[in-house]
Amino acid sequence: MEGNNGHSSSKSLERVLSRKAVQAGSSAPCKIWATGFLCGVCIMYLFGVALPPLLVPQNRSVYPPLRRAILWNFTLTEHDGVAATGESASAQGKIEERKRNYHATEARIVQLYNAWSSMLNTTSDEVLKSSDLPWPPHLDDCKLNVERNKRFDSYGDNGTFPHWTLWKGSLGLELLNQKYSENANQYRQYPPWIVGSDEENYPLTRRVQRDIWIHQHPPNCSDPSLWFLVADWESLPGFGIGAQLAGMAGLLAIAIKEKRILVTNYYNRADHNGCHGASRSSWSCYFFVETSSDCRKRAFELMKRKASWAEGSVKVKENYTSKQIWVGRIPRMWGEPWKYLQPTTEINGRLITNHRKMDRRWWIAQATRYLMRFPTEHMCGLLNVARHSAFGLEAAKLVLESIQNDSPKVGTTRTKSDIERLVWSDHKPYIPRPLVSMHVRMGDKACEMSVVGFEEYMKLAGNLRRRFPSLKNIWLSTEMQEVVEKTKLYPDWNFYFTNVARQGGNITMALYEASLGRETSTNYPLVNFMMATEADFFVGALGSTWCYLIDGMRNTGGKVMSGYLSVNKDRFW
To answer: Which chain positions lie within coiled-coil regions (predicted)?
Structure first.
């Protein structure tokens, strides 16, 4: 279909250009000009449409292929000037030269991409310095991020409050006067994992995140007055990651209301060989733990004492009913901020201004944001792999265009300037923007919500594009192979997706995840989840718990005013 459309378009263009040539008159210069121009158009069609796509690295998950786009841009920008000369021999020579240059450029792009690929598991500033490669703009320095975030997530050596300031990231850690941190009032500081102002997040997000952290991180975990709630993550068959997070949000609410420290325990989805050491079978494989190691140690010590159980200083999930966990009362210590949620969710062309579960929507967003506040080095690495697979070739092309050199090795061993090290290092990795994340939920979800086809999601994406004409990139997450196949019907969009086996029929999600294995069925959804939180826009289905949680993460991540286009509503609204 794509090839036929291109062929008919080229025929129409040739007819139009022929009429223009006739109208130009019978003079020799006009004929020469017309002949040269038509030759250029034919060459443009040959290289831009007729030729098959060039080979791309096999782990690349993007449609349409990047190489075709590069070649098309080349023909549009270069051949106009060639055709205008009207000298066919000279034009042919220039075309051949540019073809050679194009293939040389392609080789350099792939060379740099492959060099970055070989270093994915060791990406850090020191490694890249020693390799003499330019820094990949689409990758995070995972080691540096974790070291910095650990300082934000713990008290100082002398018991001082974490270095939360109005100075962002590494800048505040290194340059702000230490005396300011020692004398600062903890109740006037806000956590660094919240992006944007109060108006760009759910009501009271910065204050709530600070208060949850303080509640979960008492200065002295050996204080006998502290009580604990130790809870395994839900592990019943059929419980997805979304349901597990929603359940843990309910337990965090109980802990706060009862003035207990929540301590998460066994996490079945981290029980695989990708999670090493103490992080195996623990949430800490993917994200920072919910409380300090001292408090975790104290809670497990209390569990071994009969007196602790008798006096109630330690409880477990089984001490509470399902109703208390899943639909229990939301903490009221902050009042009722959900009554002031900005209506930025659209369903069927109308903004949702009120519904029966606004309090739960607000709280689950706060709890999810806290539990996923900082990715671990392992999770950061998974995101690097996904971004490299999807955006690595584009990033290599941008880098090579910027350095204008014959080799991808450009000698970057120079010492970084202060602004690079302390200011620019806090910027997010490169992704092609604007980017809309789209989660298409189908399959067995039909028993819980109204399921619609991929076409309805794309209609909403089209609505976004009418307002934002530069929008052409979609990060697609779905369990259905038929959805991936249908992306070929939308050649005006660039689709990116993780390279994973997908469902070919309506099997249950539990069976599908079992076919992938525990590690893959955990890694790729979490990658899609985090990518969705970083996208500029989101299209999904609020009837899906997963989309519900993505919406909450975006609304506590500075993206309230980006809005949310949903194909349906939550079934409990």
So the answer is: none
Helix axis angle, 518-534 to 377-403, nearest 10°: 50
Say if residues 545 and 442 touch (Cβ distance below 8 Å). no
Question: Residue 503 has what DSSP assignment?
Answer: B
For the whole model, what pTM was predicted? 0.81
Is residue 263 a contact partner of residue 290, using CB atoms and an 8 Å limit? yes
Q: Are residues 325 and 448 in the same domain?
A: no
Residue closest to 564 by CA, chosen among 341, 360, 410, 414: 341
Q: Are 50 and 10 in contact (CB under 8 A)?
A: no
> 398 in helix, strand or coil?
helix
CA-CA-CA-CA torsion sign (127, 128, 130, 131)? positive
CB burial of residue 350 (10 Å; 0-12, 13-18, 19+):
exposed
SS3 380: helix
CATH number of the domain residue 444 falls in: 3.40.50.11350
* Each residue's pLDDT tens digit, 445-496: 544 556 788 999 999 999 999 999 999 999 999 988 999 999 999 999 999 9
> Domain tally for the chain?
2
What is the length of the chain? 573
Name the residue range of residue 202's domain.
190-337
197 in a structural domain: yes
- The reply to whether 380 falls in a domain is no
CA–CA distance, 244 with 117 (Å, rounded to integer): 33
Question: Mind listing the pLDDT tens digit for each residue in 539-554?
Answer: 999 888 899 899 999 9
With 0-12 / 13-18 / 19 or more C-beta atoms within 10 angstroms meaning exposed / middle / buried, residue 377 is middle
Nearest-angstrom CA–CA distance, 225 and 313: 8
Q: Where do runs of H (alpha helix) occur along 431-544?
A: 454-467, 481-486, 509-516, 518-534
